Amino acid sequence: QKEVEQNSGPLSVPEGAIASLNCTYSDRGSQSFFWYRQYSGKSPELIMFIYSNGDKEDGRFTAQLNKASQYVSLLIRDSQPSDSATYLCAVNGAGNNRKLIWGLGTSLAVNP
Amino acid sequence: ETGVTQTPRHLVMGMTNKKSLKCEQHLGHNAMYWYKQSAKKPLELMFVYSLEERVENNSVPSRFSPECPNSSHLFLHLHTLQPEDSALYLCASSRTGTGAETQYFGPGTRLLVL
User: Fold this and answer.
1) How far is Cα of residue A34 from the mean position of the Cα atoms in its chain?
2) Burial track B66-100 (b if 16+ CB lie within 10 A, e otherwise)
3) Mind listing the pLDDT tens digit for each residue in A38-92?
C-alpha cells in the first residue's frame, strides 16, 4: 500500500517565525509532489508543486524535495495568522500516474 | 473562486433516498474527479473521468454512481447510502488527468446520511 505520512500536529508557531512541515512517502518511484492548503470548512487549494530534488521558492513558501530520503517539506517564512490551516501533502505514484496519494495533513496554528 | 462549482453545498438524506451531487467546471479542463473527505482520513479518490471516459474507479461501492455527460459536468448519483458515507464530497478538475497536474477543487458538498 502506497502511503504518504504527515505529522497531524497541531504545529503551533508564533507570528513571524518559520513553520516547517514535513511529509514522507513510500513509493520510491514517485515523480510529482504537491502541497495544498485547506482552511477549516473550505476545499484544498494548491500552494506549491515540486518535481526535482532541491529547493523551490515562491514568495514566503519554500518546498524542499529529497528523493533519496523520500521526503518533501514545506517551509513558511514570516508566518502570519492567515497561514493557520491544514497543509496536505500529495504525491503522484509511479505505477498509476492518474492518482495522487494524499497525507492526512498537518494542522498549523500561527499565534499573533 | 477556483472555477469549479458544486451543488448542493449541504445535503441531508435518509438511507432509502436517492439524490445527486452536481459539479461544473469553467476552466476548460478535460479531467474531473470525485473525492471523499472524512474526518481523520486522507482524501480518498473515488472516480476519475478524462474526456468523459471513466479512467479510474477506486473500488467504490455501487451505491455511488458517477456520470460525466461532457467534460464540464460531473454528477454523483447516490442511493441507499449508509451512515458511514457521511462526509465531505469534493469535485476537482485538471487539464488532462495525469497526476502530475494541479487539481482545482470545488467547495464540496457536506453530506449527512441519517
Assistant:
1) 7
2) bebeebbebbbebeebeeebbbbbbbbbbeebebb
3) 999 899 999 999 999 999 999 999 999 999 999 999 999 999 999 999 999 999 8
Q: Does A52 touch chain B if contact means CB atoms closer than 8 Å?
A: no
For cell 497531524, what's the residue? A8
CA nearest to A91 within chain B = B99
Residues A82/A16, Cβ–Cβ less than 8 Å: no
CA distances from A5 to A47, A104, B63 (A): 18, 7, 30
**CB-CB under 8 Å, A45 with B98:** no
* pLDDT, position A83: 98
> B79 forms bridges with which residues in the sheet?
B18
